[in-house]
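anyone seen this seq b4? input:
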Amino acid sequence: MKGGAVGRNIGGIKNDRTNNNFCVVKIKLGLLNIRSIGSKYNIIYDLISDGLDIFVVTESWHGSSENPSIALSTPPGYRFVDCVRDNDPLHGGLIIFFRLCLKCKTIALPKVTTFEVLAVRFTVNSQEFILLAIYRPGSAQLSGLFFKELISILENITVLSSRIILTGDFNVHVEKTNDPYAANLNEIFDNFQLINRVKAPTHLRGGTLDLIVTSEDFPQQFKVTSSISK
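predicted toks r here
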């Protein structure tokens, strides 16, 4: 398995005014670059079963939605949405597992060439937020086109909701303050009023590459922990 991260965030997304009380619903979200789901379905199953509400898998290499490893990864009470790499379905790939109690609708996005992206609108207790999952191949040279395409995606998403979670493997060393690519990415986050919640290393060789980023308007009861996978 590629070194990656499991990040868990807890965000209140419900304002329930029944009986004039404010109620917070907590969402636990996990993220992991699995680098082939094929023989690692038991790892994913166990991580989801540990109490996650949403689990994002990058670099799944699953080929199609019919891959039996996806079904084996899915605990009772969960379902998934996915996308495969257009020109190479046995590499790359994104899967989002989530509880059945979360209503989910996929969102059509402009076509991009420098990263893979999957967007869904989740609804829980009449409150909505958009989850944007991303995988940018580390083998591909970073270029200005990546940042232009990311801006295009964010422009499309931010008009739909002020509550956004952007998560995935960016393969950008955001911990390097003198890195121009990291500076570009952080500037984009600032321009769209997004906050990266992951500060710890997420890769075996060091570096913060796997991010959980939220809009500033997302309720602020938030907690992120990271663990590096072997």
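The CA atoms of residues 94 and 210 lie 14 Å apart. Residues 3-10, 12-24, 226-230 have pLDDT under 50 and may be disordered. kinda curious what u guys think
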